[in-house]
Write a structure and sequence with these properties.
With 406 residues, chain A is of the alpha/beta class. Helices cover 43% and strands 15% of the residues of chain A. Chain A folds into 2 domains: 141 residues, Aspartate Aminotransferase, domain 1, CATH 3.90.1150; 245 residues, Type I PLP-dependent aspartate aminotransferase-like (Major domain) (Aspartate Aminotransferase, domain 2, 3-Layer(aba) Sandwich), CATH 3.40.640.10.
Chain lengths: 406, 406
């Protein structure tokens, strides 16, 4: 028997608000006509406000991985030295794309579950420069979806800028942007990528990429081949209110509505909401006796990973969760079977987290892990309340003018 | 004032049937869960039936152009000799992708508005082989959207197979497949690409690519770089009921419903319907005094191009059409301002064509081109009636077992 309600708690695709779902049912329009032109301009401006950038921004019909590929192949040439700072499966993928297209990739290895340390990045850059391999680009992950860790991207970017001033800063912002504080321009980020199915509350199908002036200059010299993902073609079309190839029109409709909802709520409130759901998820999962995977100070507010206990049959447990309507994500890459992940980004409030925790609790009891019924819920709401208060201050700090805080 | 009804008559995106639109509003699911796995398997099987292939078939989140790029970069290496048979803007694009990735492209030039001649392809292949540049692939366009011409793909493929047996046949089937007879296996086509927003009655966002055994063999040796469009990664995920990167889930929902509608109607009837709307469109436009662009015997049954009369201000005329709710496409590339195009593929019957013709007629009269009111409609219905009859025979012939007809 299927449960009446499904709780989709994977880190993307995220649940769609009703108005966004409705937009998905609209009839098609001509993607080279005035309605779509107006929509594209509106959506681009809205995204620029969310990225906190005045750089150009283009919209690709692709998943986030396509956006990462675009971010690499437009700005680099085969043989270019690149520093890849990977803290998980998506960081590895970013570096693998650069390698596949012939970049000379040096990797800063970080234990999964931890954030990258600016000192390690500085040292790695120093070694590259000393060896006569001055990096053309530094690849950074903002929020690592596979481990539930948020990198200190501002500090990493500052360090990289100082240690290798000519290197482009290319950032995977896919699963954090729009949910936690982010400042593309103030942090000096050259290329930033995100994906529609994450914080944006929109179906998958679009990757959005911002491009700085110096990234465009690099693009003119960059010889990695590209056609579909050629950002200059996209920018050339964008100034006419078009895309070079037929875009995912329905997903653009949804994005237009979603951005309106996000701006009506306001990003400060959205960041506070994600801080609250992040804290609630972590507190609840801990109260249930699971060990959190991420290093606590850098635990992500959009996705939480927890270790599967050694004596637990994850496949059976997951089937039981699904039977009660809770859909979680497993581990990726070398973490397959080792962790499970709860997505809490986009259209999510503390109430949705309570529902997920309640099902986790009930199922854990069924699997012979005795719990005081409701304890996870108490822990979650109380963590959410404190987070909402403390995050208010953090948020204000994080979006203060550049230079006012380390 | 906006018209109450919009008639979207561009050659993609095509109008969505109501049930397909509803699918666009469904809530997201986990793209690595059992519901999506079942959907992906269903959709893949349905597409294989439509392609008439037993080859592997993968679904990419991209526009058709992304599919064309995948078809090139997976099977070729830089320096590989390739014959590109272009009969319009999309054929040019196909060749440009191969060139961009370093293929050594020889082009068979065909006057726009005409189909490719098998004899020209044979001669070009002969010259390449003589010059020691035996082609690794022949790029063919099934239906050229920019000119409204359908190539005799069966004859072209037969010729290419005979003249250059080792060359892969890579076919852009984007705007014809699913609307006019097509036989991927019987015609020996190695790689075939289509796009969701054409005959499939689905929003844009997906490209579907079939890959033959010998194309997979070529892929193992092919060194053009690819990551997002790596078809082997897609096939590896596909056997687990997944995609390697997050797919456009909402567009997949729509495709699932659309394939059900298409199979309920039956491809024989669908081909007859497109033959009827094609004939109706051409007859009606001619009756209105416009000159058809395509060579009559190879005029497409999915898109019709007509010349803009020299004394007509196309921009003003198009604005007036839009004011009455008729959305047409202009010319592309060197045909910009020279032609207009009427899309008639996907969810379209003769009645929709009559509506378009009625608006064209009314607007033409307003622009001082006197017409006997209703004449285009009479011409259209009568052409549709004859086409439906004669096409029945053609269709049966075209889908008869291999070898039973030339």
């Amino acid at each position: 028997m299927s449960p009446l309600t499904t709780h989709l708690r994977v880190p993307g695709p995220t649940p769609l608000p009703d108005r966004v779902r409705e937009a998905g049912s609209w009839q098609m329009v001509n993607h080279r006509g005035p309605e779509f032109k107006a929509l594209l301009e509106r959506v681009t401006q809205g995204l620029k406000r969310a990225f906190r950038t005045e750089n150009d921004l283009v919209i690709l019909t692709a998943s986030g991985t396509g956006g990462l590929e675009a971010a690499v192949v437009n700005h680099l040439s085969p043989g270019d030295p690149v520093l890849s700072t990977s803290i998980g499966a998506f960081g590895d993928r970013f570096g693998a794309i650069a390698t596949r297209y012939g970049a000379d990739v040096t990797k800063v290895e970080v234990e999964w579950g931890r954030a990258a340390d600016p000192a390690d990045v500085e040292a790695a850059l120093g070694r590259m420069i000393e060896a006569g391999r001055a990096p053309r680009a530094v690849l950074l992950t903002h929020n690592e979806t596979s481990t539930g860790v948020t990198n200190p991207i501002q500090a990493l970017a500052e360090t990289a800028r100082r240690a290798a001033p000519d290197a482009l800063l290319i950032v995977d912002g896919i699963s954090g942007l729009g949910a936690v504080p982010f400042e593309a321009d103030a942090w000096g980020l050259d290329v930033v990528v995100t994906g529609s199915q994450k914080s944006w509350m929109v179906p998958p199908g679009l990757a959005m990429v911002s491009v700085s002036g110096r990234a465009w200059q690099a693009a003119e010299r960059a010889t990695m081949p590209r056609f579909y993902f050629d950002l200059a073609s996209h920018q050339k079309a964008m100034v006419k209110g078009e895309t070079p190839w037929t875009p995912a029109v329905g997903v653009c409709f949804a994005l237009d509505v979603a951005l309106e909802l996000l701006e009506a709520e306001g990003y400060e409130r959205i960041f506070a909401r994600h801080a609250a759901v992040g804290a609630a998820t972590r507190a609840g999962i801990k109260a249930l006796g699971f060990e959190l995977f991420a290093d606590p100070p850098v635990a992500s507010n959009t996705v939480t990973a927890a270790r599967v206990p050694p004596d637990m049959d994850w496949a059976a447990f997951n089937r039981a969760l699904r039977g009660r309507g809770l859909v979680l994500a497993g581990g990726q890459g070398k973490l397959t079977g080792q962790i499970f992940r709860v997505g809490h980004l986009g259209a999510v409030s503390v109430n949705e987290i309570l529902a997920a925790l309640e099902i986790l609790e009930e199922t854990a009891i069924e699997f012979g892990r005795p719990q005081e019924r409701g304890r996870a819920l108490v822990a979650a709401v109380s963590a959410a309340d404190s987070a909402a208060t403390s995050d208010k201050e953090n948020t204000v700090e994080a979006t203060a003018p550049v230079g006012s805080a380390a």
